[in-house]
C-alpha cells in the first residue's frame, strides 16, 4: 500500500513538473507572439506615417507649384506697379547739355528680369526732342535694381525716359510697347500663353 502511494506521488510529481514546464513554454510562445504583433503594429504605423508624409509632401509641392504659377500671372497683370524706371540727378550745362545721366530699373517682382529696353529722349528747352537713344538693361534681379550710365548730350535741358520692352523668362513675361493685345485677353503679356481647356477651343 505504501509502495503504491509512493509510486502515485512520484507520478503526480512528474506530471506537475511536466505541466509546469509546458506552462513556461506556452508563456514564452505567447510572449513571442505578443512581441511579434507589437513589432508588426509598429511597422504598420511607421509605414502609414511614411505614406501620409509622402502624400503631404506631394500636396505641398502641388500647392507651391500652383502658387508659383499664380504669382507669375499676378505680376504679369500688374507689372507697372512693380517694374519702374528712374533717372539720377544728372547735370545740366549753362547753355544746355546733359551730363552724368544714370538710368535705374527697379524690379520689385519675385522673379528676375532678363532684359529691358529703355528709350532716352534728350529734350530742348522748348520741349522738342534733340535726340533719342535706346539702352538695354540686362539681368535685373528679383526684388532688386540695375543702374546703367547713359551718354552725355551737348544739347538738351532735361530728359524723358520710357520703357520699350521687358522680358522675363522666369516670369513668362514678354511686354512690348508696340505689342497689340486681343480684346478679352486677361493675360496678354505671357510669352507662352496658358493652354485653353479643350471644351473652350473653337469647333
Quick gist of this model?
The chain has one helix and nine strands; from the N terminus they run αβββββββββ.
What does this structure look like?
- There is one protein chain.
- The protein is α+β, with helices and mostly antiparallel strands and 203 residues long.
- It has two domains: 1-77; 82-181, Immunoglobulin-like, CATH 2.60.40.
- Helices cover 37% and strands 29% of the residues.
- It has one helix spanning 2-77; strands spanning 83-87, 91-92, 98-99, 102-107, 113-123, 129-140, 144-149, 158-168, 173-176.
- The chain has a four-stranded antiparallel β-sheet, with no helix packed on it. A three-stranded antiparallel β-sheet has the order 1-4-7, with no helix packed on it.
- Strand 2 (91-92) and strand 3 (98-99) form a beta hairpin.
- The longest helix is centred in the N-terminal third of the chain and has 76 residues, at 2-77.
- It is rod-shaped.
Amino acid at each position: 500500500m505504501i509502495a503504491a502511494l509512493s509510486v502515485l506521488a512520484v507520478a503526480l510529481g512528474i506530471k506537475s513538473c511536466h505541466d509546469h514546464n509546458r506552462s513556461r513554454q506556452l508563456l514564452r510562445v505567447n510572449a513571442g507572439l505578443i512581441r511579434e504583433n507589437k513589432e508588426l503594429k509598429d511597422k504598420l504605423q511607421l509605414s502609414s506615417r511614411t505614406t501620409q508624409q509622402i502624400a503631404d509632401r506631394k500636396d505641398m509641392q502641388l500647392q507651391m507649384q500652383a502658387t508659383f504659377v499664380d504669382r507669375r500671372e499676378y505680376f504679369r497683370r500688374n507689372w507697372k506697379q512693380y517694374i519702374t524706371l528712374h533717372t539720377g540727378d544728372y547735370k545740366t550745362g549753362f547753355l544746355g547739355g546733359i551730363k552724368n545721366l544714370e538710368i535705374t530699373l527697379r524690379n520689385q517682382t519675385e522673379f528676375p528680369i532678363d532684359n529691358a529696353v529703355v528709350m532716352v529722349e534728350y529734350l530742348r528747352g522748348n520741349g522738342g526732342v534733340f535726340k533719342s537713344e535706346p539702352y538695354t538693361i540686362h539681368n535685373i534681379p528679383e526684388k532688386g535694381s540695375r543702374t546703367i550710365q547713359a551718354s552725355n548730350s551737348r544739347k538738351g535741358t532735361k530728359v524723358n525716359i520710357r520703357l520699350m520692352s521687358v522680358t522675363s523668362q522666369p516670369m513668362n513675361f514678354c511686354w512690348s510697347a508696340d505689342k497689340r493685345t486681343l480684346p478679352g485677353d486677361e493675360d496678354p503679356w505671357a510669352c507662352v500663353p496658358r493652354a485653353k481647356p479643350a471644351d473652350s477651343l473653337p469647333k
